[in-house]
Amino acid sequence: QLQLIESGGGLVQAGGSLRLSCLASGRTFNLYRVAWFRQAPGKEREFVGGITWRGSGANYEHSVKGRFTISVNNVKNTVYLQMNSLKPEDTAVYYCAGSPASGGDYDYWGQGTQVTVSS
């Protein structure tokens, strides 16, 4: 079994920063790629960014590129999402997800953490 647990969400003013963490426990050797997704009220879940479990090959959704950074600490089995210059439209529940194979589906999901950006 593999579990993903997010933390670090909260309320922040526009222009501020937050860092989300995603702790992976269990069979982390099953992970090939990890990613962050988000879902705002009334909207579909969308991809924010992803990276390999080894910490390479990061890619981002266009609206967050240059503001958000994904990183991995394999010693701590933790994936981070550093979010800077936050905007009200970044308000959403943020989910960590893991895929066991290159190009595969994201089979593992965390419970989500709420990020609210006030204007």
Characteristics:
mainly beta
Give a description of the structure.
With 119 residues, the chain is an all-beta fold. It is 0% helix and 53% strand. It has strands at residues 2-7, 10-13, 18-26, 33-39, 46-52, 59-60, 68-73, 78-83, 92-99, 108-109, 113-118. The strands form 2 sheets. Strands 2, 4, 5, 6, 9, 10 and 11 form a 7-stranded mixed sheet that branches. It has a 4-stranded antiparallel sheet with strand order 1-3-8-7, with no helix packed on it. The mean pLDDT is 95.
Mean pLDDT: 95
Biggest sheet architecture: 7 strands, mixed
Number of strands: 11
Share in β-strands: over 45%
Estimated structural class = mainly beta
Shape summary = globular
Whole-angstrom Rg? 13 Å
Q: What is the number of helical segments per DSSP (H or I, 4+ residues)?
A: 0
How far apart, in Å, are the first and last alpha carbons?
Answer: 40 Å
What is the string of SSEs from the N terminus onward? EEEEEEEEEEE
Seen as an oligomer or otherwise, the chain set is: single chain
Low-pLDDT stretches: none
Tell me the helix content: under 10%
Secondary-structure blueprint:
Layout: E1 2-7, E2 10-13, E3 18-26, E4 33-39, E5 46-52, E6 59-60, E7 68-73, E8 78-83, E9 92-99, E10 108-109, E11 113-118
Parallel strand pairs: 2-11
Antiparallel strand pairs: 1-3, 3-8, 4-5, 4-9, 5-6, 7-8, 9-10, 9-11
